[in-house]
Structures are given as structure tokens and as C-alpha cells.
Fold these 2 entries.
Entry 1:
Amino acid sequence: MPQTLVIKIGTSSLTQPETGLLALSTIATLAEVLSQLRSKGHRVILVSSGAVGVGSARLGLTERPKSIALKQAVAAVGQGRLMRVYDDLFTTLQQPIAQVLLTRSDLVQRSRYLNVYNTFRELLELGVIPIVNENDTVAVEELKFGDNDTLSALVASLVEADWLFLLTDVDKLYSADPRSVPDAKPISLVNSIKELTAMQVQTGGQGSQWGTGGMVTKISAARIATAAGVRTVITQGQYPHNISKIINGESIGTQFEPQPEPTGARKRWIAYGLVPLGKLYLDNGAATAISDGGKSLLAAGITEVKGEFDTQEAVGIFDGDGNEIARGLVNYSSNELQKIRGRHSREIREILGYEGAETVVHRDNLVLI
Ligand SMILES: Nc1ncnc2c1ncn2[C@@H]1O[C@H](COP(=O)(O)OP(=O)(O)O)[C@@H](O)[C@H]1O
Ligand SMILES: N[C@@H](CCC(=O)OP(=O)(O)O)C(=O)O
């Protein structure tokens, strides 16, 4: 049966570690495998990192640029080169491709989010393999995915993919970074993110020299994707043929079982597509009413408001211990909430001088995470 596959390849797999030059044989094999999957009827999206790494190699830089302006300039050099290589390879295989560059703001605004969805749907219908990257050259710091693991999970959630493959330079997830802890234990199957939390996997630093985020961002990507019902796999980019083997049931890499939450696409957008601009801290009663009772959030249960936000913007909702329990869209701005927090809904009119909504976050706009 045709399936929707999102494959993310990291800089560490696309480039040779010693020189930073392109790992041509890996990329060529990947192009072959993805074209074969396409010809079998699967819908395929490639999320490719590498703009900064390839741009750096082109410009003779020996380490990943740190300043934002330099990174943005280098990405502009690298992205073009990367797409040229992909286009040459895929054209040889008669597989049309498209470049899709996204920034976080494309997913924050609901109308743009739906627009991106429509574009993907159309491209997939046309038999094209979209090649996605963050639009590093224009992305501003506050509105960045920051890493392509997160971006690929959001894309997989957006298109309701069956599979997300995170291709990297290690063969699977280990109990600790195998580079620094040689006897770290391999993990082949993760039944739930709860189980993973209990395993207390150590993720060390920021990953390889050119990569962004290391294992931390892959685990949080798995969390986003599995919650959207997407089976997620961490496996080695050097062996793209493994993708077909995994789809056919072989146990390779680390596989995360999908854990679809009973939330629709709109609630997934609230939970993971939006960038929370503030934080609401709740007393125990309100935290329980939301977590266990599926209730809306009222002003009375809010003990503290942090950040600056307007009405209808996204906030994180925290219990008394500081754990984020939910996200939602607020009916009041941060200024208004500072005045009405801890107060009964019937007092709102008197405090603000006008009639407001009864709830601070209505349960239709609230999603547990
Ligand atoms: N628990 C762990 N299991 C496996 N790899 C880990 C772990 N913790 C950290 N890592 C490191 O994460 C790196 C991959 O992340 P990264 O360099 O960001 O790759 P990519 O460029 O593919 O996104 C590996 O090279 C490995 O050293
Ligand atoms: N958008 C950036 C990639 C950021 C990123 O997540 O890198 P990686 O950890 O190698 O997947 C680029 O193209 O260089």
C-alpha cells in the first residue's frame, strides 16, 4: 500500500567529516532509493540539511559559522549548490524534485500553515519529491525551527506521514553518546516516549562538528512525530537502502512506535506548530482540571503570567512544579492577564472595565502535551 514517507538527512551524513566536502556516494544512493520508493507509488518528502556545511566548504571555512549574519550568508551559498547536486542526480533518474524553503512563521499563521499543506499535497500528487530545508538566509532568531529534526517532525505531522526517517551518522540511539561512552547500550525499539524518559538516555553535547542539536533534537522530533501518529526511525544515513528494508519490516536502527493522540490537525498545530510567547503557571486545582478533567482554563487558577503576548497568541501552560502540561491560544493579552489572574470570571468586567471571554483558554484551543 502506498505510504507517505518523510526522510531527513543531517549534515553529518551529507558531508565527509574530514573535509566537509559532499559525501557523493551517499547522496547518489539516497537519490536512487528515494526514486525507487516513488516509482513504487510511495509519497516521498526529503528534508535535507547541509546548506551551512556545504556553503562553508565552498568558502573554505574550517568551522561552522557562529555569527547569525555569516551563517545566513553561508547558507545562501550552500543551498544553491546542494540543490544543484540533487537536481543532477534526480534528473538522471527521471525523478522531478522541488525546493521548499520554510521558516517557522510559515507554520505559525494558520492560513500559511494550510497553504504549505496544500503545496505539499499538490507536489506529492504530481509525483514530485519536495526537498525541504529551513530558509536559513531569512529566518530570524525568534522564529526559527533551529534544527531540521524539529522541522522534519512538523512536516511529517503536517502531511500526516506514515514514516519519519532521521538519517544521521550513528546507527541508532544509545543509552549515552557512543563516541564518549563506548559501552553505551543500543536501543532498538521505543514503545512510548514515557518509556524513553524512564530509560534516562544521555544525549551529551550538540552533536557532530557540523550538525545541529545532536540526539536531543532527534528525540524531541520523535516525540512530536509519534504524537501525530508517525512511526519514527533513527538510522545511519550512510546506508540509504536500509530505508526500504525498514519499511518492509526489518528491525534496523531505533524505531519509535507511533502514539497517536486523539487530537485533530488544528490541535497539533497549536501544540507544535506555534511558538509560545508566554507562560501561564497554575495552582494545583486548575492543573488537575485541565490535565484530568478536560476543562477550559479560567483566570482564577492562574498564579503567575510570564512574557508578553496578545490575545489569540500561543502560551505554554505549567503546573505548580514548573512542568509544561499544555499549550493553548489565549483570549486575553498578557497585560490583561496580569490584572485578572487569580480572580473569578465574574470579576473580570469590573477589573478591566469591559466584558471579556469567560475562559482564558477555551478547551477547544487547549492541547495537553
Ligand atoms: N544517546 C546517544 N545515542 C547516539 N548518538 C548520540 C547520543 N547522544 C549524542 N549523540 C551524538 O549525536 C550525533 C548526531 O547528531 P548530529 O551531529 O546533530 O547529526 P545530524 O547532522 O545527522 O543531525 C552523533 O554523532 C552522536 O555522537
Ligand atoms: N538548515 C541547516 C541545517 C540545520 C540542522 O539541523 O543541521 P543537522 O543537525 O545537520 O540536521 C542547514 O541546511 O545547514
Entry 2:
Amino acid sequence: MFRRRFRSLLRQAFLPLPRPAAVPRNAIHNTPPPLSPRMANSKFEYVRLFERPDSLLLNTWIVVRIDGRGFHRFSARHGFTKPNDQRALNLMNAAAVQVVKDLPDITIAYGVSDEFSFVLHRATTLFERRESKLVTTITSTFTSWYMYLWPQYFPETPLLPPLPTFDGRAVCYPTEGNLRDYMSWRQADCHINNLYNTTFWALVQQGGMTTQEAEDKLKGTLSKDKNEILFSQFKINYNNEPEYFKKGSVVFRDYQDFEVKDLLPQHSKSSTSTPKEKSNSQLEKGKKLAKKTPVVVEHVDIIQDEFWVRRPWILGGR
Ligand SMILES: Nc1nc2c(ncn2[C@@H]2O[C@H](COP(=O)(O)OP(=O)(O)OP(=O)(O)O)[C@@H](O)[C@H]2O)c(=O)[nH]1
Ligand SMILES: [Mg+2]
Ligand SMILES: [Mg+2]
């Protein structure tokens, strides 16, 4: 009796693991599968089983951030002025405006240096929220426009290889608070880098230091120290530096007040305050309105509440 049970346990322990249902034998052994009515197109179609679904989590804010590849070298090769090249920043902004115009689901974008973050509304269903499709579309649309618009912004400077390319990534933020913190993080980074770069290049260009000497001087300094160096040595009041450089660039649709009511969720008159589902015609109307609304670029604070409170459609629409 005991021996029989022991044998059966032993048998069970060595039973082969069940094969995962989704991966057919032919996918592993590279032999053509038997044709089934569902795979009637060609014997090769089974290779689709290797593709993985990559839809981003529902009901989360999607941020696609693109960043220039090797722009340290690219900017030197094309003679960008230091620390900020107005033409280069204008070109980045112009390309970003085209991306926002092309994709109405982008509610806001923020750019600094060689990067841009594009925010897709948490309700978006664009490309079924497929990560690779969103990231590659936004990145390549931006890159194409950057190349196309180059001569307008650098009429005297031909574009030289290696041509500009951008990488892209998507991150989902589950709450409005997380998204606001992300945007604040990028803008705070802009301020920190700009203060550093402004002081660094003042020491080099006006103070006659080598880049190594300037780097050594700034090592371990705080913001107030850099402000002090700028003011005492170069009579530069950092607060008076252009907002463009201090705040970066915020790109968004500038709706008029009377249009905003069409964009925000309507609350039903019943006791519950759940927003009503929008009908298809309302959604279409919203899309049309988005298409004809000007996309603007501003250099304003997005860390404090004011920007968001004054533009409720950015986070509240849909
Ligand atoms: N002179 C000048 N350089 C700029 C300007 N904007 C961006 N850059 C350069 O672009 C670089 C962007 O930094 P990163 O994105 O961290 O570095 P990267 O060289 O692009 O390298 P990867 O992004 O890792 O490929 C800066 O360090 C600058 O060298 C500008 O307005 N003027
Ligand atoms: Mg870069
Ligand atoms: Mg960068």
C-alpha cells in the first residue's frame, strides 16, 4: 500500500510539465504548422505568435519623452551658441508644435535642451495605446519635422551627418499628481541646468577660465553661490535672464473660454456627480475643435497650480 503510493508520487514528480498553450510546436522547432482554417493565409503566418502585446495601462497619463542622440557633439558640429542657442530651441519647439497638431490626443508638451515630453490624455485610445506604435510615431514625426524645418531656422548652416536622431520612451503616470510631479521635475531640471550652464559659460567666455577651471570652481556650489558669482563677477542678475531659458517651453492648445465648456465632462443633473459619457458626435466635435485651435508655445511656470487652474481643459478634457 505504502509502496504503491510512493511509486505514484514519484511518477507524478517526474511528469513532464504541460506545454504552454499559446506557443505551438512549430514556433519552437521552426517547422511549418499544419494549416488550420484560422491560419489560412499562409503557412508562415504563425510567426505572428512571437509578437507581444504592448498596450499601456488603461486610465493612466502616458508621457512620451524624446531626446536628441549625441547632441553634445551635434550642437558643436553645427555651431550652436552657448549655453543656449535660440535658433535650436525655436526649431525644437516648431517640430513639437507639428507633433501636437498632428495628434490631438496630446494635451500638453514640455521641452528643454534636446528633449521634449509629450503627454497623452489618460483617456486616450490612440493606436489602442500600443507603446511601440505611440513611441515610434511621435519620435519619427518629430525627427522628420526637425529635419524638414532645419533650413528655416539655420539658413546659413547646412545640416551635416551624422544627421539628428532622437530616442523615445513611454512612461505611464497613474494620477494627475504624479503627472504634475513629472512635469515639475523636468522644469526644475531645466532651471538647475540653465543656472549651471549660464554661470559656467560666463566664467569661460567672460571670465577667461578654461572649461576645466570653471568646472572645478562650480564643483559643490549651491544655487545661491552661482547667483552670487553671476552677480558679483559679471553683473548678471539671474532673475532677469530670459524666461525662455529659465522655464523651458510649454506647448498646448489655447482654447477660448467659450469653447472650454464643450471640452470638459458634463455632469448629469441627477444627485450623482459622475460625468456623463460623451457621445460619438460630441467626441467628433471635440476633435474638430482641437484641430482648428491654435497650438501655442509659452515659457511659463508649470510647477505652481496657476497654469493648470487657468487651463482646465489640459487635464480635465475628454
Ligand atoms: N551649445 C548648445 N548646446 C546645446 C543646446 N541644447 C542642447 N545642447 C547640447 O545637447 C546636450 C544634451 O544633453 P544630453 O541629452 O544629456 O546629451 P547627448 O549628448 O544628447 O547624449 P545622449 O542624449 O545620451 O545621446 C547638452 O549637453 C548640450 O551639449 C544649446 O542650446 N546650445
Ligand atoms: Mg540627448
Ligand atoms: Mg537631453
